[in-house]
Amino acid sequence: MSRSAHPAGPRHADVLPEGHYSAPPADLNTLDPKVWAQTVTRDPHGVVTVGGLPVTRLAEEYGTPAYVVDEADFRARARAWRTAFGQEADVFYAGKAFLSRAIVRWLHEEGLNLDVCSGGELATALSAGMPADRIAFHGNNKSTQEIHRAIDAGVGRIVLDSFQEIVRVAHIAQSLGKRQRVQIRITVGVEAHTHEFIATAHEDQKFGIPLAGGQAAEAVRRALQLDGLELIGIHSHIGSQIFDMSGFEVAAHRVVGLLKDIRDEHGVELPEIDLGGGLGIAYTSDDDPREPHEIAKALTEIVSRECESAKLRTPRISVEPGRAIVGPTAFTLYEVGTIKPLDGLRTYVSVDGGMSDNIRTALYDAEYSVALVSRTSDAEPLLARVVGKHCESGDIVVKDAFLPADLAPGDLIAVPATGAYCRSMASNYNHVLRPPVVAVHDGEARVIVRRETEEDLLRLDVG
Ligand code: LLP
Fold first, then answer.
1. Ligand 1 pocket mutation pick from 91, 96, 141, 358 by most atoms within 8 angstroms of CB
2. Is a pLDDT exceeding 70 seen at residue 7?
3. Residue 19's pLDDT is what?
4. What's the rounded Cα separation, in Å, for the pair 217 and 210?
5. Nearest-angstrom CA–CA distance, 31 and 34
6. What is the pLDDT of residue 142?
7. Which of 14, 33, 432, 436 lies at a CB distance of 3.0 to 4.6 Å from 356, suitable for a disulfide?
8. Strand positions, DSSP E, 95-163
9. What is the pLDDT of residues 54-80, one digit of tens each?
10. What is the pLDDT of residue 15?
11. DSSP strand E in 110-221: where?
12. Which superfamily does CATH assign the domain made up of 138-321 to?
């Protein structure tokens, strides 16, 4: 549609309505490497390519919407975390961010371990050949079947999350004639600076056992008495999409404080601590995430310093990044369907997906970027809201973003940094089919999770 066919919505910074955006960027065609996967660029015709393949070809071959993941970027980020922490620490990729068998194989090949939090994630990991002893099993309400299966498979650790679970895991391990390696997840009372729903170390929430009031110490006392358990450490995860390292500093201080109390009371120095995941990524050009080597340096320094002052041997550290590895490696490719300019407000751009493939905007008020990727444009910036095709007005993918004013139905647009918590939280709302995940690498593309079909939907509907 040409610009004259849909009279202008607001276009200039001085007449923009309220919202979470800065002034329009100088050039809408430029792709900020902070938010796009590493191999993303534009070809001489202005078409965006990833792994050497134009998005127009990907759309033709695999349809839209589609999640497109840059395998080289995923591997590079996984390796960067592994290298940054070295041989003295373990990196467990948090599978909840996004898990598939190809991802498990890439992680295995790059030397990472895996954190799973359900029977489904465990099954995916095992079926793709992740050695069980490199798997950590999480969750605040693991079923007895899940616990049984995890112990039977020989998972490297189970992270205990409640007093009931301490007894349950010990009992199941004993019934299998095993002694299960476990950590206890504690809440250290840190308020992470992130959205309330993804902050997890303050006390008034469902995860972990509070350090406050001596509850964590009591959990340790009980775990140490049970023959079915080998208590190897303490776990803390303070939240997600965090940029400020001070929360980790306080958490490490308190976890080491507990290790010291355990040593003083039981004469035991626990050999491991896990500081969880939660490191933030850039969703827009305004975000400034830290590099893995900076994070590794900061965390290992904090723990060594704390241990030195508590006169403890420095335990082996582990971390569980999910978003920071997979988030930036993928984008969601959509086709523009309809365009509605609302005078004095903004222009609504509807795409062929929506809250079923990205619930984060509706759920957390998350911010995303967007770009026209099937061509370049010199048209002036248009304040747009990218919305989906669902029967709900909160079905927003990108709340406020600038797109060129000559945007037209049939154009391809892409939302970067959707590798984490988009496919893994996707739904079938309105019986919309979940998009495929297409991996690209060195000029080749392959589907690693196929598009859902109507047959898939109807197969479950057995009424
Ligand atoms: N370890 C534990 C114990 C966790 O609970 C989580 C995330 C992670 C590691 C990985 O956190 P990451 O590095 O990916 O931030 N759905 C929300 C995020 C929920 C995170 C839940 N736990 C979102 O879309 O932002």
1. 96
2. no
3. 62
4. 9
5. 9
6. 98
7. 432
8. 113-116, 135-137, 157-160
9. 999 999 999 999 999 999 999 999 999
10. 53
11. 113-116, 135-137, 157-160, 180-187, 209-210
12. Alanine racemase (3.20.20.10)
In 270-330, alpha helices (H):
292-310, 323-326
To the query of whether residue 307 is one of the catalytic residues in this protein, the response is no
Atom of ligand 1 nearest to the CA of 235: 3
Please tell me the predicted confidence (pLDDT) of residue 193: 65
Q: Which atom of ligand 1 is nearest to the CA of 280?
A: 15
Cβ of residue 198 lying under 6 Å from some atom of ligand 1: yes
Topology (CATH) of 13-70+328-458: Lyase, Ornithine Decarboxylase; Chain A, domain 1 (2.40.37)
CA angle 74, 195, 401 (to 5 degrees): 70
Asked if residue 321 has its Cβ within 6 Å of ligand 1, the reply is yes
Tens digit of pLDDT for each residue in 11-67? 444 455 666 566 788 899 999 999 999 999 999 999 999 999 999 999 999 999 999
Task: State the average pLDDT over residues 414-419.
Answer: 98
Taking the centre of ligand 1 as the mean of its atom positions, its distance from the CA of residue 239, in whole angstroms, is 7
Q: Which two three-digit tokens encode residue 360? A: 């984060």
Residue boundaries of the structural domains of the chain: 13-70+328-458, 138-321
Q: What local confidence, expressed as pLDDT, does residue 5 receive?
A: 36
79 Cβ below 6 A of ligand 1: no
Q: For residue 407, give the nearest of 341, 354, 333 by alpha carbon.
A: 341
Report residue 60 as tokens.
């033709």
Q: Which residues of 1-27 are buried (b: 16+ CB within 10 A; e: fewer)?
A: eebeebeebbbeeeebeeeebeebeee
- Please name the residue whose Cα sits nearest to atom 9 of ligand 1: 277
Ligand 1 touching residue 139 (CB < 6 A): no
Nearest atom, ligand 1, residue 323 CA = 14
pLDDT digits over 321-351, tens only?
Answer: 999 999 999 999 999 999 999 998 999 999 9
Neighbours of 368 (CB within 10 A): 24
For residue 199, pLDDT over 70 is answered with: no
DSSP, residue by residue, 25-86 = PS-TT---TTTS-TT-EE-TTS-EEETTEEHHHHHHHH-SSEEEEEHHHHHHHHHHHHHHH-
